[in-house]
């Protein structure tokens, strides 16, 4: 029942926002909204590994970029069908390519998922800090590979010419926005399903005490591999439509530290134990950044993110969700009857005492 | 000639490695000995570079001399950062996840602030020895590399002497092994750790000055060093300073070879690839515990 509420309300909220933005008729709203939605996906993906399992991933940008560059590679492939395919396959290739954005998202997800699995195999026998440092190293290794790979543009970058119009919706940015909206609902639903399943409890045991979990027979290595794969795949999915959004992709923008910082800061500020945390954090920070970019400057908005991250981990280690939880714990304990607050808490899977 | 090229590449690598030792020694103390994952260390190094740059531009003082003068400032900064870290994370037992995020945020904030103040232009310093190169038959010894290497090895040597011969130094080595035993020797673990962390940040002042002598610096250069310092630190066996020097020399030579024979655009991948492989196959380091 709670799941049904979740799906209905998230679809409703998404549809309402979309209708509102169309009614305003301002394409900028879609551009800004796309970025915020992208951060919701990234933050949720980071939280699956970082929040649930307690493994800090500093390489979010790498997974994001793998998704983006798999789209670029497919785009280049489609542009030069006659050159890259043998005679007999040209007809077939022309039927398939160019791929549409949802297919690219799935492809990007698979690529990043595989990278995530590989990282997991390579590093997850290491605990804590070593894993974090290894992900940082992974990002630089992948960036160097892309810089030296001429097919996708190397350090010069690659231009992606996107179609101006799509059928039914009209402008292309609205289409991208809608795709990202669906993707963010998928990401949130994934996180929510994980949280309520055996998998989620398994993850939590790893976070709380990995050695004890292993001693109790929790298959920790397998669970961690699942977590890195899902987390990586979602990040790649967030990255796949990015070249079409930005129009020109170069390694230093795709691997930018801003993605890594944001995808850590957002769950940390929102709260890491529930799917609501990354959502709240991404909405808050995403909107602040959009406003700050327009009104002040893009360097200052990164400074805001950094300062908020440092401030929150010192002052409110449980994030905004933790603050709200403390507030609700008081309310529920004195009444006993369910109030709107406790109903909200149950809905968001953050009722006092749970996890 | 290939042989001469080879020998020159080895010399350049050893000199570079000597400098890497200065960059890494701070991490060897904070991460290796104290178990504090200070990934913001490279940011402090860049801060040191910029201070050396400002003083060099305005007063014309030698960058390395500047670094020694501002050493107490960096020591105080390190003590302050440790105090915040201790109060907010270590004391509450939350150092793992949130401590990492804290240092990551610190790294990011420092970098963005430097960008806001100085922009992303490359900055460099002036000193008499930077231009000078000593030639011996086919070998080249650029003083731009020799001076940092010598200063770095001197610093590491001094630190090794301090850690192995003085009471506080031995207490620092002991604090990671047994805090209770340390308390029984009438030493306060928190105070010892604060001293050690402050020393580790103080080395960043010198390392920063050496960095800007070797190459022009801009705020995001520090990021390249994150992988290097941790690769060297892990390979060197975490707490051993001699191990750090050996690992630094090794990485320097490997990087120099890659740059000479494959091109400099592959150089960043070397150190990080090195780190990934070390972590995957030899997490205890070369000299292994």
In words, what does this structure look like?
The complex is a heterodimer of chains A (355) and B (289). Chain A is mainly alpha-helical and 355 residues long. Chain A has one domain. Chain A is 76% helix and 2% strand. Chain A has 18 helices and four strands. In chain A, the strands form two sheets. Chain A has a two-stranded antiparallel sheet with strand order 1-4. Chain A has a two-stranded antiparallel ribbon with strand order 2-3. In chain A, a hairpin with a 3-residue loop joins strand 2 and strand 3. Chain A is globular, with a radius of gyration of 21 Å. In chain A, 46% of the residues are buried. The mean pLDDT of chain B is 85. Chain B has 289 residues and is an all-alpha fold. The longest helix of chain B is centred in the N-terminal third of the chain and has 32 residues, at 2-33. In chain B, strands 1-2 form a two-stranded antiparallel sheet. Chain B is globular and about 60 Å long. Chain B has one domain (2-281).
Any key phrases for this structure?
heterodimer, A: about 350 residues, mainly alpha, about 75% helix, globular, B: mainly alpha, two-stranded antiparallel ribbon
């Amino acid at each position: 029942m709670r799941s049904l509420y979740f799906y209905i309300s998230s679809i409703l909220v998404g549809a309402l926002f979309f209708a509102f933005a169309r009614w305003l008729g301002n394409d900028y709203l879609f551009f800004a909204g796309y970025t915020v939605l992208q951060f919701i996906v990234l933050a949720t993906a980071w939280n699956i590994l970082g929040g649930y399992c307690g493994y800090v991933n500093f390489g979010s940008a790498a997974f994001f970029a793998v998704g983006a560059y798999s789209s670029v590679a497919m785009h280049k492939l489609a542009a030069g069908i006659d050159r890259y395919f043998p005679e007999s396959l040209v007809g077939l290739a022309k039927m398939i390519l160019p791929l549409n954005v949802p297919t690219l998202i799935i492809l990007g997800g698979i690529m990043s998922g595989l990278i995530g699995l590989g990282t997991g195999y390579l590093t997850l026998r290491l605990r804590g800090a070593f894993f974090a440092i290894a992900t940082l190293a992974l990002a630089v290794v992948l960036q160097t590979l892309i810089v030296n790979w001429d097919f996708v543009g190397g350090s010069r970058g690659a231009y992606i010419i996107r179609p101006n119009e799509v059928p039914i919706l009209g402008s292309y940015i609205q289409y991208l926005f809608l795709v990202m909206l669906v993707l963010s609902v998928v990401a949130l639903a994934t996180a929510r399903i994980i949280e309520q399943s055996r998998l989620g409890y398994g993850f939590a045991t790893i976070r709380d005490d990995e050695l004890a979990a292993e001693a109790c027979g929790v298959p920790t290595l397998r669970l961690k591999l699942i977590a890195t794969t899902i987390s990586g795949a979602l990040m790649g999915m967030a990255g796949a439509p990015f070249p079409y959004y930005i129009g020109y992709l170069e390694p230093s923008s795709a691997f930018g530290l801003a993605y890594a910082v944001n995808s850590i800061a957002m769950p940390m500020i929102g709260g890491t134990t529930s799917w609501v945390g990354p959502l709240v954090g991404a909405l808050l920070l995403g909107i602040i950044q959009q406003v700050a970019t327009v009104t002040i400057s893009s360097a200052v908005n990164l400074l805001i993110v950094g300062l908020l991250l440092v401030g929150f981990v010192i002052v409110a280690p449980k994030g905004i969700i933790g603050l709200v939880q403390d507030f609700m714990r008081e309310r529920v304990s004195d009444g006993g009857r369910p109030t709107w607050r406790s109903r909200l808490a149950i809905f968001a899977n953050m009722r006092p005492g749970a996890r | 000639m290939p042989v001469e090229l080879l020998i020159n590449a080895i010399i350049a690598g050893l000199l570079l490695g000597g400098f890497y030792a200065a960059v890494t020694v701070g991490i060897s103390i904070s991460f290796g000995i104290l178990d504090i994952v200070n990934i913001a260390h490279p940011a402090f190094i860049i801060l040191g570079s910029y201070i050396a740059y400002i003083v060099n531009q305005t007063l014309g003082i030698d960058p390395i001399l500047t670094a020694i003068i501002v050493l107490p400032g960096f020591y105080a900064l390190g003590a302050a950062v440790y105090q915040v870290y201790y109060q907010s994370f270590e004391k509450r037992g939350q150092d793992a996840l949130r401590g990492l995020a804290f240092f990551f945020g610190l790294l990011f904030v420092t970098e963005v602030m430097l960008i806001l103040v100085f922009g992303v232009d490359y900055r460099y310093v002036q000193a008499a020895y930077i231009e000078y190169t000593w030639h011996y038959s086919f070998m080249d010894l650029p003083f731009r590399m020799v001076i940092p290497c010598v200063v770095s090895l001197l610093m590491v040597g001094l630190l090794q002497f301090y850690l192995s011969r003085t009471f506080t130094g031995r207490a620092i080595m002991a604090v990671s092994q047994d805090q209770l035993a340390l308390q029984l020797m009438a030493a306060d673990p928190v105070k010892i750790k604060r001293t050690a962390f402050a020393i580790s940040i103080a080395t960043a002042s010198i390392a920063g000055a050496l960095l800007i002598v070797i190459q022009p610096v801009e705020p995001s250069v520090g990021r390249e060093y994150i992988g290097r310092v941790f690769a060297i630190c892990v390979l060197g066996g975490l707490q051993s300073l001699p191990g750090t020097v050996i690992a630094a020399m090794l990485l320097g030579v490997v990087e120099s070879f890659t740059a000479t024979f494959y091109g400099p655009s592959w150089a960043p991948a070397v150190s990080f690839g090195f780190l990934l492989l070390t972590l995957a196959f030899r997490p205890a380091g070369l000299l292994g515990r």
